[in-house]
Design a protein that fits this description.
Layout lengths: L2 H21 L9 E3 L13 E8 L2 E5 L5 E4 L5 E6 L10 E7 L5 E6 L3 E4 L5 E9 L2 E13 L2 H76 L3 H7 L3 E6 L7 E7 L4 E8 L3 H21 L5 H16 L11 E9 L4 E7 L3 E5 L2 E5 L21 E4 L5 E5 L7 E2 L4 E2 L2 H11 L4 H16 L8 E7 L3
Parallel strand pairs: 4-10
Antiparallel strand pairs: 1-4, 2-3, 2-5, 5-8, 6-7, 6-9, 9-10, 11-22, 12-13, 13-14, 14-15, 15-18, 16-17, 16-19, 19-22, 20-21
Helix pairs in contact: 1-2, 2-4, 4-5
């Protein structure tokens, strides 16, 4: 609740209390009734008044009669006075008079009742006389009533209320001040933290921009190392390359080299993706160039064997080296003139579709580099296939088959991938690429891409 609303409510409460006091012509302080006894006065008139009751808070409180005078303080509603007539008198009706402060008395009829009721009396001195109706000059009962001015008691109560009000306001102000100070400190601390977080956010944003710019530039370098797809189309007019990176830079890459009589093609999946995979891809580019161009090796299995050995040379001088990454490779050598395809695989296979049948040429069950230090004698197998017209063959990484998605969030898997290629292989190669991309994106849906995706398709109409 707002501080000033609390103050207003407190003032209103105090105002209504004062109104209540004024309306009642008194206060809510404890009311007391006093009787004044004067043993030196012998008044036979008082003996005819048998009892007196005062109505306070809806209850009648009796007053013991010791003399012909009583004194009342504070507020009361009614006074009931019971009397008895003299024994020697026979009467049917009574009359009583009320005289205030020596003014002219006022007379009232009590009828046949042997009691009278006086309503609220204003502060002052009263004399009540009770008569037989026939003897209005000679009262048989007299009572003096002193009603103290309620203002005297009211002033003390009002002063008490004012004091309580002032103390309450002081306490409330003190508490509110402490609360406001605490809130102010909290706001200052929050503002300080907000400014600090804003600065950190700006620093992180700038650092992120710098890193992103660097990675984007690295992607340009990586793209420059891979031959453009239009160059691939010159060598194989009926072909496609589908390459979808998980991050800005990719751990999957393709490599092409044309020699005098053969075209060498590799689809490479560096274990890991993003920046680590990109660094591995640069190493792979250089090693492929060195093995094929400098050393002149053309046979796929020998190229993979040499690539495997080269990893040991690259990392031999690294202290405390524990090699956890490597490459999965599908490597092809194509003799277009003689329509001969040679294949060797490090974990990744080759799919050939002929006469509506998918044939899988499996790669060896070990990767480049990753298993070399544990099994240095591993050698890769070379497969030779005589191509026929309209044969379509595909090399790829595992990113397509490993993508999660679909209605149940499961992997795409190789079986579904083979069926998709079989359904699409008769289409033009560019159409195949479009359908493959649409299929994997629809399968992925709103899920994250789990790995880089690379698929290369070639139709053997050359």
């Amino acid at each position: 609740m707002d501080f000033w609303i609390k103050i207003k409510l407190l003032y209103l409460s105090f105002f209504f209390i004062l109104l209540s006091v004024c309306a009642r012509k008194g206060i809510s302080a404890p009311q007391t009734i006093q009787s004044v006894q004067d043993d030196s006065i012998e008044n036979s008139f008082a003996y005819n008044i048998t009892s007196i009751e005062v109505l306070e808070r809806n209850e009648y409180n009796p007053i013991f009669i010791y003399s012909d005078s009583i004194e009342l303080t504070a507020n009361f509603k009614y006074i009931k006075i019971d009397f008895s007539k003299p024994t020697e008198v026979t009467a049917k009706e009574y009359t009583y008079s009320v005289q205030r402060n020596d003014k002219k008395p006022l007379y009232y009829s009590a009828g046949k009742n042997n009691y009278i009721v006086l309503s609220r009396l204003k502060p002052g001195n009263y004399t009540v006389r009770i008569y037989l109706k026939e003897k209005i000059i000679d009262p048989f009962g007299i009572l003096h009533i002193k009603v103290n001015d309620y203002k005297y008691a009211g002033k003390k109560a009002i002063l008490l209320y004012i004091l309580i009000f002032i103390v309450s306001v002081f306490i409330l102000l003190r508490f509110q001040t402490r609360t406001l100070r605490k809130i102010s400190r909290q706001f200052r601390e929050r503002d300080r933290l907000a400014i600090q977080l804003m600065k950190q956010k700006e620093e992180l944003t700038q650092k992120n921009k710098n890193i992103t710019d660097s990675i984007t530039y690295a992607k340009r370098i990586q793209n420059a190392l891979m031959p453009p797809e239009k160059h691939f189309k010159i060598l194989f007019p009926q072909s496609f390359i589908l390459h979808i990176s998980k991050d800005i830079v990719s751990g999957d890459f393709y490599w092409i080299n044309e020699t005098d009589d053969k075209i060498l093609i590799a689809a490479v999946d560096c274990t890991g993706h993003g920046v680590p995979g990109a660094f591995m891809s640069i190493i792979g580019f250089e090693l492929f160039r060195k093995i094929t161009s400098t050393q002149g090796i053309k046979k796929p299995s020998e190229i993979l064997n040499e690539l495997n050995n080269s990893f040991k040379s690259v990392f031999k001088d690294v202290d405390d080296f524990s090699f956890k990454d490597g490459m999965d490779v599908a490597f092809c050598s194509i003799d277009k003139k003689n329509r001969i395809l040679e294949f060797s695989g490090a974990f990744n296979p080759l799919y050939i579709i002929r006469d509506n049948t998918v044939t899988e040429i499996k790669g060896d069950r070990y990767s480049i580099g990753l298993d070399h230090f544990e099994n240095p004698d591993n050698v890769f197998t070379n497969h030779t296939i005589q191509l026929e017209k309209d044969d379509v063959f595909y090399i790829f990484s595992d990113g397509f088959a490993d993508q999660f998605g679909g209605p149940e969030g499961k992997k795409y898997k190789y079986r579904r991938f083979r069926h998709l290629l079989l359904a699409l292989h008769h289409l033009p190669m560019e159409k195949q690429k479009e359908y493959l991309k649409k299929s994997i994106l629809d399968w992925k849906g709103n899920l994250d891409q789990v790995d880089d995706i690379l698929v290369i398709g070639i139709k053997a109409n050359f």
